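Why this split exists: single-chain examples teach little about how molecules sit against one another. For that reason, every record in the complexes split bundles all components of an assembly together and asks for one structure covering all of them. Below is a record exactly as it appears in the raw files.
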Amino acid sequence: MPAAIETEGLSRRFGLRLAVDAVSMTVPERAVYGFLGRNGAGKTTTLKMVLGLIRPSAGVARVCGLDVARDRIGAARKIGALLEAHGFYGNLTGRENLALTATLLGLPAREIDRVLAVVEMTADAGRKMAGYSLGMRQRLGLARAMLGAPPVLVLDEPTNGLDPDGIADMRRFLKSLPERTGATVLLSSHLLGEIEQTATHVGVVNDGRLVLEGELSRLKADLAPQILLRTGDDAKAAQLLVGHDLSPVATEAGLAVPLRPGENADRTTAALNQALVQAGLPVFAIGPRDRSLEDIYRQVSAPQSQVEVV
Amino acid sequence: MLAVLSVELRKLNRSLAAVLALAAPTLIAVFAFFVLLRGSKPPPWEMLLQASTGIWAYFMLPMSVTALTALVAHMEHGPRAWDHLRALPVPRWRLYAAKAICVVGVVAIMTVLNLVFTLAAIHLAGAIKPAVAPVGEPDLTRFAVLNAKVLAAAVLVIAIQLWIALRFASFVPALAVGIGGTFFSVVATSAKEGVFFPWQMPVNMLAKEAWRVETALALGGGLGLLALAAAIAHLARREVL
């Protein structure tokens, strides 16, 4: 699949601090790519380099094959962006704000009506921006990013400030975008759940480095299966499991036991259950555990010292 | 470029720029009106219009430029609009050039308004108190040319104030420089060295010595245009973090 966005060894240094360190990422066309990382990990700096807002210290960013450093305007024509700072003018109405951008992009007025309808903001478009809630600003920001139907959308924390219903709507909307419009979405967030429920692909950035990238379903499938169990005495259960040459990990949901490659989950579950009961430990719950994006994230980004092994 | 200019004008139109554009010339006209009413003999047109142009050139113009450039810059700094604007497929120099053109345009309008409002104030005062009404006709062509020179000599100060206002997100540096420059322009209006001081270049258009007029016009206008071009180029190239 051709890449909508591609970076090669993209780096950015601010003084002595290396904010982005040789990031090579590939966002396939028509993907919803979740760009994940804690605050300050380098997500926004990477996005700003993709948008041509700041220059890389090293490396290349390409949008639809166009080198952003060599042809910023050509690359910018392919991108619509929703940035953390919306940059709306409070003394103008929502429609007037969109009209300013539409004029700069050389778009007709009907394009404003189209994007307002897409984000269901037509009724409020005549109100001054100063009276908009944060959620309405986010939706209007999304509408502005979609002006001219660019093939790539870059959205920095798009669910910020949305209420639960708004978040659910936004997720559905973003998920359906590639199918409805053929657009590719690069979505940055520090919220695992948001990315897991929206993205088809993920990239995890940690301390400025891209530590993991791939199709979300494949990454999950590649994870070693686990058995999750809750007992009357998890500490004692953990000692017993270690004695069976297993490595239990304490999680909020109970003890997670990674299986060895080729090990049958059902048979191991039954054997573990038998061993725990024979040891006189009450077993409240036991069974294979669905692997989540959080597992993947913790595996690649958490320092070893933070992974508690009982 | 027309699209960028139209966007800039729409933003300005909904700001308080119009209030500022009217306030400064109105204040000078009000001052001229009451000064004339206090008198008992009709002063010559020449003196009245010279005084009005002088006040505009050494005090109101630099203060207005300071306020206007801060307003134009804060329209983008306030809502943090630079990232959005600079990410658009528009050459960045055009964004800054449009702002520069708008500021020069508004200052030109204010300069014209200053002359028009002063004329109106003098006529009104003369109508209320005929004893102080100036006799004859004013030499409007001469004062139109003089005001055009004042505007041209102000380009350097506009370039400096606009660059500072756009470069720094806080309005404090621009105000500090503007107030400081105007202060020296007021307290040392007749200083010969003022011809080399950007804030005093406009008022030097009223000087009697030709060399002062020519030097201040060349520096304020010629160097001013170069400074404006350099400011636009620098702002377009720099990163806004």
